[in-house]
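seq:
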Amino acid sequence: MSLPEIPKCHRGQRWRFTRWLSGALLRLAGWRVVGAVPEHPRLIFVVGPHTSNWDFVYGVLAILATNLNIHWLGKNSLFKQPLTAVMTWFGGIPVNRDNPKGVVEDIAGKFRRADALSVIITPEGTRSRVDNIKTGFVRIAEAADCLLLVTTVDFPSKTIRLGETFKASGDAEADVERIVRLFSEVTPKHPENFSAGRS
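struct:
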């Protein structure tokens, strides 16, 4: 199974055995990763549809196998001692979800200060059905000149696709609608939990 080449600025420093084992497990499960990661220093991987814990399992294997250095956002309560160092080592960035505006400004600032940074976002925010997808991640992309990389998880074909890339247009709702349309082209583990909404 061939894997996408990761640009040097987003490449991790994982052991060769870790990369090999993760790739072997993906192959054994019948999954593949297709597409490309652009050579842009600021990337937001917009991943969906998110309807199952299996999204996380196959996603982690794909990250390890491709040797992608990527971060994720988690509520700040997850980063309390003694887990602070572990969560940070695994790429976690703590956020205060009670202050959405502050989260946008904080993460945009991290992007601007970093030579290169990639962050994974699941717009739905939960495996359960949601009627509205928040637009905060699009505002982050606009504020920090990030490239949005729409990444879909299709269970019938067992494919994680690094798909369409674009910059925020200035119309957050239109950008979310565009992403939802791309999500709608694939079939998640639990289709009944996917809703094409926004807020």
